[in-house]
Amino acid sequence: MKRISEDYQSRLPDNTALKQQQLPAYRLQLSATGVLSGFFAAGAFCLGMGIILILSAKSIKEIEVKYTKICANCAELREDATNFDKECTCSIPFYLSETMKGNVYMYYKLYGFYQNLYQYILSRSNSQLLGTDLKDVGNCAPFSNSHDGTPIAPCGAIANSIFNDTIILSYNLNSSIPIEVPMLRSKITWWTDKYVKFQNPSSINLSSAFAGTTKPPYWSKPVYELDEEDPGNNGFLNDDFIVWMRTAAFPTFKKLYRRLNRIQYFIEGLPAGNYSFNITYNFPVTRFKGEKSVVLSTLTWSGGSSLFLGLAYTVTGAVTWLASFSMMAIHLMLKKKKMLFIQD
Amino acid sequence: MFRRSFNRFCAGEEKRVGTRTVFVGNHPVSETEAYIAQRFCDNRIVSSKYTLWNFLPKNLFEQFRRIANFYFLIIFLVQVTVDTPTSPVTSGLPLFFVITVTAIKQGYEDWLRHRADNEVNKRTVYIIENAKRVRKESEKIKVGDVVEVQADETFPCDLILLSSCTSDGTCYVTTASLDGESNCKTHYAVRDTIALHTAESIDTLRAAIECEQPQPDLYKSLGPENLLLKGATLKNTKKIYGVAVYTGMETKMALNYQGKSQKRSAVEKSINAFLIVYLFILLTKAAVCTTLKYVWQSTPYNDEPWYNQKTQKERETLKVLKMFTDFLSFMVLFNFIIPVSMYVTVEMQKFLGSFFISWDKDFYDEEIHEGALVNTSDLNEELGQVDYIFTDKTGTLTENSMEFIECCIDGHKYKGVAQEADGLSETDGPLTYFDKADKNREELFLRALCLCHTVEIKTNDAVDGPTESAKLTYVSSSPDEIALVKGAKKYGFTFVGIRNGHMRIENQRKEIEEYELLHTLNFDSVRRRMSVIVKTQAGDILLFCKGADSAVFPRVQNHEIELTKAHVERNAMDGYRTLCVAFKEITPDDYERINRQLIEAKMALQDREEKMEKVFDDIETNMNLIGATAVEDKLQDQAAETIEALHAAGLKVWVLTGDKMETAKSTCYACRLFQTSTELLELTTKTIEESERKEDRLHELLIEYRKKLLHDFPKSTRSLKKAWTEHQEYGLIIDGSTLSLILNSSQDSSSNNYKSIFLQICMKCTAVLCCRMAPLQKAQIVRMVKNLKGSPITLSIGDGANDVSMILESHVGIGIKGKEGRQAARNSDYAVPKFKHLKKLLLAHGHLYYVRIAHLVQYFFYKNLCFILPQFLYQFFCGFSQQPLYDAAYLTMYNICFTSLPILAYSLLEQHINIDTLTSDPRLYMKISGNAMLQLGPFLYWTFLAAFEGTVFFFGTYFLFQTSSLEENAKVYGNWTFGTIVFTVLVFTVTLKLALDTRFWTWINHFVIWGSLAFYVFFSFFWGGIIWPFLKQQRMYFVFAQMLSSVSTWLAIVLLIFISLFPEILLIVLKNVRRRSARRNLSCKRASDSLSARPSVRPLLLRTFSDESNIL
């Protein structure tokens, strides 16, 4: 008999909070003051942030020089791929009305170049770039092997289409003698790219390491001779190359090219005055109706000179405050009504 | 399913006609006649779907017949074959998961069926072969084999009883597993073979049996009295011999077994509708992208810029083919918009969620020591969508514990004061006799009560002799009969059992009277009466009949009726169940004739039912009325409160009962289905038979009622539910015969018209009572309402076998674990111990389940539109080249890991309103009626919200990327950083959106919401922190960490999340303000109302039935 009653007992559902849907729970209770103060605080934060961002963006000096049209003759020359070995230079003078203080960065900017095409992004070999397997060109079609079958290093469409203009900035201190502005080409890549993701194949010297491979068809020099001045900046570890290999998100994009070496005249930054870009024009853009430009820019803590973030914050803050003011009005009205009712 | 396998096992069904011939023991009847081995199916029961060999192909085939699965399979195949941007793993893995889980579940269920089948098929049975007892497995039995069955064994196939161990060739059988009736039934051996008691003698039998072809008809009657059905159990008989006539899949049990048809909930239909909308969006997106791609590529420098030359293969491919593959690729790229994981989550939510019902302590009943039972988890949310409730009366609204209240003999009222505690009754209660009828009549009446029934005696094992009257327990399929027998006992006549076909009664003088039971004319729902024919010790042959007044009155001498009739009507008004008792003396000559007719009818092979009925009809005439009984059927605990709550929730409650109108009506008043203010419209034989031509009168009434109702309810059918409270309430009463007149007068062209008018009337009435319903009619009504315009959701609740048809027919079937067997509970979708549990089941559980699953569905579509819209927009910036915005890992993990658990936890735990509030304020139920949360409005809201958020994510990040650098050290970000920023904002936004929607924050919610976000961050660091050797592309390497090193990105992510959620936050605050002011207004109103407070409903006890007497 006892056993039976135990049996019955076991069929009684457990009286646990979970099973009875009685878990202790917090229910959000909105109080008018809480909501209003929350809104005001959020609005204040957004407005403040927006103003700070706008101010810092305003402090940035940026100058962009488009040189496709200015260097029209060079552009025309590059229309025809057979003229690849003909050198073409082009000089673009410009005037800097204000000093660019602090660190100055030089970018090149491409218009209408789709680095984000599906096939294009795929066309690279990470194991090759890691230096582990130089012969692995599996994904690199149509730039995997040269006509005679030797694997290309670095293979693929991205590497093949590297930006190969040389841009030299010179400063005309007096009207006659131009001084070449000292520029650094180091530390323009992500640290991890330079030190982990890209590795040269190990060997005594670079040229022997890349033996058995050939240069990409559009390149004039093999990968181990990219930088004649700094031997450490060659092979897959070339900074310009690494920067190029990080594909841009949109067809109009900037890529970091050089940064100002703050010595001599340029300790403070770029002083106002006459400058000129001396460009060795190699990269064809008119073939896809694109454009090229050089951008000089200073930066602040928040990065480049875009007003977007500041404006967005300001607008959001304003809207939030607007909402909170109208809510306050409604709240006061309701309160008044209630008071009236109680008086009745 | 059974049908199919039936055909497979019994090939050549079409060849068989009329009857089959079975040779007993498979011996040819005569030597001269050539024995032709007939082919019948073997005795294997196959209820399983699969075998080990065909499981994989068959199960896969069945699963891919579902549209959604098939769609995902296509997507997967496209991904495998066509060169697509996303890896096949992204859609293959979830699909594989879904398929595997379902296959395992179905495989397990089938394994259970196999086990059950094997248990039946491999059981040992004894077969008489060549005069020897041979042990065999049950599945080896062939038609014609002679089978020996021992006590308490179940019959292995349908048998014809040849002989039993008793000399009279009877055996007792319970059919509890077939129809839920637990009483013992007596079956008789074929007369000619009664004497064959041993295996040897049986073997000498040479006979052929001519019998009907297998028929599934189980309910009319359980076969003639010498057919023993598979599944029934032999009781109180040592052993029997029988010959197998139907085996395996041809047995009545197998033919009657039908898998419950899959019920689909309204939410599921909505999901499918959404699915089609999203499929359309998907196809449009893919088509737009494909078109634009080719427009864009029409200029050569876009088609093949110098930096991205085509491979040889690409150049050679046909343009049309390329367009086609491009279209497919886009489809694959956007396919996440239809989330495969939603199906998994919905299934899991339903499965896990249904536990809350069976776990609910409030559904636990102390008496039967059981809680609620969930037979299907597919319909949880349907409980929140019910429009119509069809409830049985007996055992559902009422207790079905009958108590003999009083009786009337020749118009004299006898009322017992003694109350019985339980099954064991004593005769010591003092009885009050108001005034006495003639002593002889009195004894005759009580003898009739003692004889005219099918009650069995269950003897207590401790006591030796069954005649020891102190320890008798009555068992019967009908509690009325027990109440009556016990009632007779109170007056001194005790039924002590049946011995050798003799019913034994202990009379008031403690003497045993014996009556030979000649025939039992069983009760059925059409005749609504039963009779016994007995022979007294003196040799007189008597017929006792008891039945419903309407079934008995026309069959007795007229002059006797009046007094009894008044008595019966008064009893019915008090809510008692009444039965009239009549008797008749039969002369031996007449008996001879009757006996012959009865046997003839019983032996008939064709139209047995009709013949039997006709004979019964002939016999039960010209009887003498002795009296009537009144049995009280107590209302169930809180039945009235439950009905009231359901009413307030805007549900229409219909009572469908087999009982007579007066009884049913009084029950309806008692449980407040009808209020005193309710005006009753009656469509009963009573109201209609006043006129000569029934149909004209019916038509008149219908028109009149409609006019009345239409006048009261102006066209505003929308606010009908709310209008109830203000307008005059109407209740409709209709009985079975009138209903069939309305539904079945098919020769009349206006029948359709009748039906539509009738439905119009029904829809406008707050409560409908249908009495005198046959089980089939109950289902008919349910089907009729189901097919109304707007297809309302119906719920049936009942406890007996007669409610099964209606339970199966309606959208949701609820069984009461009552006293009339477990048939209803077994066939139901949900079973609860009591009617009162319906309140919490619908108002709290149903409401919550609906809100949960509706939110789940909307949220799933929302989050995937958010997810895929930026991907779509990105195509405009990457030359429509199918470049995915997100990394493959993110594409795969988004639905599986990052955003799945919070919504699952929400959909299991959310209580946007307290359970107590939900049960105490039934009006809340109206808020979600008509699938309110999945209508076009909410759907558009969610869709636009998703579109807005997706646009914010994409363009916000796009404008952010217009600057030279996001870092102070001028480093530049690429496309994967862009995608990761969008994705981060996306994951945070959709998760926080859910957090905003959560009203019930348990620790689980906190854990999964914040845990998911933390997991996302952790995973991103992990995924980007290692050069994965198995990946060809190291796209994500350090992207996430580098992204977070920029202050601008942080600011942008925070801002974009805030902007995306801003409309939602505003909406919540506004809703809160409105609710608050509404509550304030309400409380003000309440304060002013309280002065003029009036009792809404008069307490039950205060109300007398005289209130409605003017309506009657």
TrEMBL record, chain A:
Superkingdom: Eukaryota
Keywords: Glycoprotein, Membrane, Transmembrane, Transmembrane helix
Similarity-based family: Belongs to the CDC50/LEM3 family.
Membrane-spanning intervals of the chain: 35-57, 318-334
Major localization listed first in the record, in broad terms: membrane
Protein's cellular compartments: Membrane
Coiled-coil region: none
GO biological process, one term: phospholipid translocation
Name the UniProt record assigns to this protein: Cell cycle control protein
GO CC list: endoplasmic reticulum; Golgi apparatus; plasma membrane
Pfam families according to UniProt: CDC50
